[in-house]
Amino acid sequence: MIYLDNSATTKPYTEAIETYQKVSEDFFANPSSIHSLGGRSESLLAKSREQAASLLGVDPDEIVFTSGGTEGNNLAVKGAALAYRGRGRHLITTTVEHASSLNAFHQLEELGFEVTYLPVDRDCRISFDDFKKAYRKDTILVSVMHVNNEVGTVQPIREIAEFLKTKPTTVFHVDHVQGFSKVPLELKDSGIDLCTISGHKFHGPKGTGILYVRKGTSLSPLLSGGGQEGGLRSGTENLPGICGMVKALRITKEHEKDGIGHLLALQQQLRKGLSRIDDAVIHTPEDGAAPSIMNVSLKGIRSEVLVHALEENQIYVSTKSACSSKDSGASGVLLAMGVDEQEARQAIRISTAFENTEEDIAAFLSVLADKVRQLKPVMR
Amino acid sequence: MIYDYLVIRFGEITLKGKNKKDFVLKLENDVRAKLSRFTKLDVKRHFDDLEIHLNGEDAEPVIHVLTRIFGIQNISTAIKVENNLDAIRAGVLRVMGAEKDVHTFKIAARRKNKQFPVHGSELNQELGACVLKNCEGVSVDVHHPDLTVRVEVGYHETRIYGHEYDGAGGLPVGSSGKVLLLLSGGIDSPVAGYLLAKRGATVDAIHFQSPPYTSDRARQKVIDLAGKIESFGGTVRIHIVPFTKAQLAIRDQIPEDYRVTIMRRLMFRIAEKEAQRTGALALATGESLGQVASQTMESMNTINQVTNLPILRPLITMDKIEIARLAKKIDTYDISIRPYEDCCTIFLPKAPRTRPDRIHAARFERALDIDALVDEAVRGIVVQTAADENQKDTFNQLL
After folding, report:
1. Cα(B99)–Cα(B346) distance, rounded to whole angstroms?
2. How close is the nearest chain B Cα to the Cα of A122, in Å?
3. Choices 3.40.50.620, 2.40.50.140, 1.10.357.10, 3.10.450.50: CATH for B178-398
4. Among A108, B9, B107, B290, which residue is least crowded by beta carbons within 10 Å?
5. What is the pTM of this model?
6. CA triplet B247, B181, A44: central angle to 5 degrees?
């Protein structure tokens, strides 16, 4: 099996699963129970938070454990907009955000907020100038993804963060779900107030994630209840998931330095190989993209057909993002980039992880070339 | 990596005459121990400073650890260059380039090596001019510069210093003998422990618990607090005293308004015995004059009667607000406000006596078998460290 759909989800580390199981069995007590069993769970939860904070270079009370990227984005976007609605009603985001963020903004529009959706260029990148022009005195929230989930483009987060450092009435949220461990992002003193990451994108268990909430940032909680996670996310803590994720976080951080270089090498190999295939149009820009994602259209072949054809050889890639591939329309991200509709329907996404090898990529490229040869006459 | 190494300057220990070497060795050991997880570092001891060679290690996390070690006055980032003017110029520019947000600067050059052809003041002008020529948007400010670039021309090489970070001050841990701190779990006592550790004391903690009236969480709280004190100093051992029986005896036998006074007298007797048993030379509390009934002058007079040991009260003249501020600084505040009852808050009378006296206290105590209560409590003491090694191992494996 060659798994190249790591932006959809990753295979969990064995160690993370072991932790999940052990904590489920040995630390089943509710951290809020006052007996000593609860105390042990509470201590483990506190230690997890400390470790997560130190790995991310922030303070423990800035870590909110969530159920993943969708919840993180929802809590950040809606939570900040509602908490600061007294200050203003204008929000800024981009046209190419993940559905969990975009749809949260649509919901806010229904509630009377005004949203500016920044357009992207052919590389899927917003322009910092556009952002500055869109910025207003009553802008209370800016939310931009670090790495685009479909094409891998890196957005100018640092410039926006620097600009917003001098604007204390605007909260800045970064959706870092695809960027984490692929494109480093400093959080402390960076001008970023909120940052979402998701556990299963770096080999942690499903249903886990972290929202970084910089000290002094208010959020209106989505879930009301017993006041867990500093009142921002009520509900009995998913301790096994949290611990499994923190374990995966630690392992990922250990591999990050060499891993990013490795991904870059694989990406270059992919680009070189794809350029040799006739009618392959690469959408992932050469500069300023994450090393883990490669989006390409094979002219004349619909993406679903290619995904299924590759899967006959146990090679797994995806059509656009897994979360939006159920509606059969073309990718909104590619359309926003100015790719024509037919070509957009022919795009596949190849996404790698540290564990992928040069051999994986070579095998993929050779199978892909075969499939393209086979499928083309049929499709035409 | 721009900086080659860090220079650690000592605080008061440089005043200590012949003992200086002992103090410096203690500090060096402490620095080595606390930095052990940074495997690339080399630590070198000189007469006036410790030099840490970074060997490619990131300076920032190392500095973060160093700013929590007592006995350090300040820490500077630094580079070394050859003893010639061109190399020094280039070095100064390198340092200017490495520091962020510098709009004004000043050069402070010193020539230890008088053979060096350029005098200190000439060197200042020379290097200042070089910076003005090469760095955009900076100007000289000799009074309040954003950055003072210090240049020290030595015999073999020249050191150029970048930003200077304040150290924690104080004396190296373990240089001042052992004290037994009454640690309740409130806001004040951990701050007292921190201040004692700052002055070089080895701090042990004694904690009174009264199960089932107090919960296990109250004990955990004290362990976490001790852990915070430990992060500044050496190992904090916690002596946990079973206090239920004594407290029930007090509740049943002592008039309500004297219960707090008598309880404190019992605590001091028990603490004194434990101090003698474990080599502590003084007791310590987080009391602040007049803060509560047991902390009036009369109360302290009445309570002190039962022991000959010195009782150190580092917070005695501090306001609650000042104490809380310090508690936040050393990260104990959030632990202290966890809402678990400790033995001082259970059976609390409605109106404790604010001006107790020794005569009444002694008379009321006759109703109790003091020696038996003290002995039993001391026999039941369990000593543990803040870092519960078993739990730490389990957690480390899991996470």
Report:
1. 54
2. 35
3. 3.40.50.620
4. B290
5. 0.79
6. 85
